[in-house]
Amino acid sequence: MWQVAQLSRAPKNIFVQPLPEKAEELGLSNFKPDVTSTLRKASYKSCPATFHFCLQRPGDEAMNYNFFTKKKTTTPQNQPIPGREAEMIQGRSGGWMFDAGIWKMLRRCLLVGTAKSTYYAGKQELTEDFVAVVRQAVTENPSRVAEEILYASDGRAINNSAPILALVLLSMGEAREAKQAFGEIFPQVVRTGSHFYEWLNYTKSLRGFGKVVREAGKSWLSREDVKGLAYQLLKYQQRQGFTHRDALRLFHVKPPTENHRQLFEWVVRGWEELPTDIPSEALAQIWWYEWLKRNPTQTHEAILQGRLTHEMAAPVGKMDKAAWQLLFQEMPIGAMLRNLGSLTELGVLRTDESANLERVEAVLNNKEHLRKGRIHPIDVLKALKTYQSGGRLGRSQKTWNPVSRIVDILEKTVELSFDVVQPTGKVFMHAVDVSGSMGSLVADMGLSCCEIATTMALVTAKAEKNYMIRGFATEFRELNITAKDSFSSAVAKARNQNFGGTDASVAYNWMIKNKFKADVVCFWTDSESWAGYKHPSQALKEYRKKVNPEAKAVYVTLTPYQITLVDPQDPLSWDLAGFDPGTPRIIQMLAKGEL
Would you call 333 exposed, middle or buried from its count of C-beta atoms within 10 A (0-12, 13-18, 19+)? Predict the structure, then answer.
């Protein structure tokens, strides 16, 4: 398009000449082919690979100050918006974003967790921020903190560790309301033996065992449901450096019933001699476990009669394919997800074992089972990725040949694990952050932020008819992802684009240029936008002015930072915390004006 006429070694001016056939297209039809124009470098900021030039005709270089006096409507992202400085904070990337506030930060930390480093911050720094936010929130409103902990713990957080840590910090609040709120939600957050010992570990490290803690521990260990308590004490006999014997002695628990007394006696002393008869229905599993210890070759009978889980039977019995087949018949949904690879390696799951595959489908492709088991979509995505790898990913030492039907079942399970409603009829633009910072892994999932963002965007797109999914870094790229993609193929397409700086405004720029009229623009991002010459909120205003005045924007933040791209003065923009299974449904409700 341009012919370079002269280029010095370190140029201040680059002389170029438009080709005759392109002059009219460029609005330079009054130029003659031999007229030389000057392309001057205007700025060099943020990224040394990015240059901006302005075109001048020779002789048009009269000095004036229009550039300075003209009202500016945009601000580079590495500067706060003039007049809004008090509402903005500088992110770890160097860009300036709006302050999300402690409550949005609290929800993000609870849902996403801080136990894994991100691209911009280490886990120690992230967790220190998390603890500071919880303590501030507990001081301001302990009841609201309790509600947030419950919300996250009820299958919405990627695991229960962050809610348990926050629970300990809530118990440390000085106000009576904080300690009361802790006691009220404790049994709803600490549901399993594993949770109980994780709570004990954090409590020992952070605060010690005062009155409010002793009351909670006693209550948990003397619950009315003795059968359920026995199940937990048998399944999780030690965790986090604690045993059940340690807990009983620590809390000085007095057995409220005879069943409790017998259960505690087994915990502390064990059974030197096996009772001739099963003491009670509540202790039946423990009796069969002790029977199996004495008769390890009779594993099949113990599993069948005692309804033992693999955590109970495997340490003391002799396990073979038939034993695993019996376990599989009663296996809970969470255990099934974790053991699909092992069951395939053992031959329990094979293409020609249609009955077993039917059971996998009946369990995993059932929304009620998924909700009751508090199965998080990210757990399913992790299971899909691990299973497809044949054992190359994850902590398993086993290898297997993936069964195609199980892969298909898991693909469907990912979709079912999110909450969606009927199509809204609205037009959606999904902007997935594919910049370099989104390549960091989330918790211990072996999944990157970009992979999870793509999955959540695709779930929302699959629930709608009118949508587009594109990726942004410093440009807005076509990802070639449609609702017909599997989650595996969509994730692979996004992963291959994962590089570059971050500029969320390029999505709006593209939509303005292409006059794409979206009802809702959804960003899936870490919100660390720094590389652009205008803030996303400014680009959104321009988009509304030029294309769609009623456009709504939703920013789903996938990292535990206290920043947001949402202008707090914009009633049509929302910030949502990432990884919540209900996010797609909430986006649809926002689109329809129901929230």
Answer: middle
